[in-house]
Design goal:
mainly alpha; 2 strands; 7 helices; 58% helix; two-stranded antiparallel ribbon
Length: 156
């Protein structure tokens, strides 16, 4: 059985909100993970690399990527690429319905694969706070955004 209640807000986000809960978590011994720009590993597919760049950049700008996120981000990028590949295959079918030799009608197996990949992508996006519902819990990061603005002004 899963944990009860909503998922905990990441401590980095709480720190950016100046929430006292972040300090409480640090005192309890939660590891401090530095925000780093993640490089795309070699084992991410070519199509997944396109998604990696987009997603990793967005998460880095929000200040919530760390080394521990690399594998989950790989899964997300590859799963999105697999979803679009399966969707393209489904779209090329003349019909999503098949007929058996006995005359029974059933759904083409690629349709189930597309639906499963869509669920997987959604679940992974939620883990990173990248859906509208989870984004409501993951507020903007004023400290991180201010740092980016200061750096941009310096390098102009």
């Amino acid at each position: 059985m899963g944990k009860r209640g909503p998922a905990k807000t990441p401590t980095k986000i709480l720190e950016n909100r100046d929430s006292p809960v972040a300090t409480t978590r640090r005192k309890r011994g939660e590891p401090d993970t530095a925000c780093v720009r993640l490089e795309c590993p070699k084992y991410v597919s070519a199509e997944g690399r396109k998604w990696w760049r987009s997603i990793a950049g967005t998460l880095y700008a929000a200040g919530i990527t760390s080394r521990q996120d690399e594998l989950a981000l790989c899964l997300l990028a590859n799963t999105i690429a697999e979803y679009f590949e399966a969707k393209q295959t489904r779209d090329e079918l003349p019909s999503i319905w098949c007929t058996s030799e006995k005359g029974g009608v059933y759904q083409h197996p690629i349709v189930a694969e597309v639906n499963a990949k869509a669920r997987d992508v959604l679940r992974l996006l939620q883990q990173f706070g990248m859906t509208p519902a989870t984004r409501a819990d993951v507020s903007a990061l004023p400290k991180r955004l201010a740092e980016i603005d200061e750096k941009a002004e310096y390098f102009k």
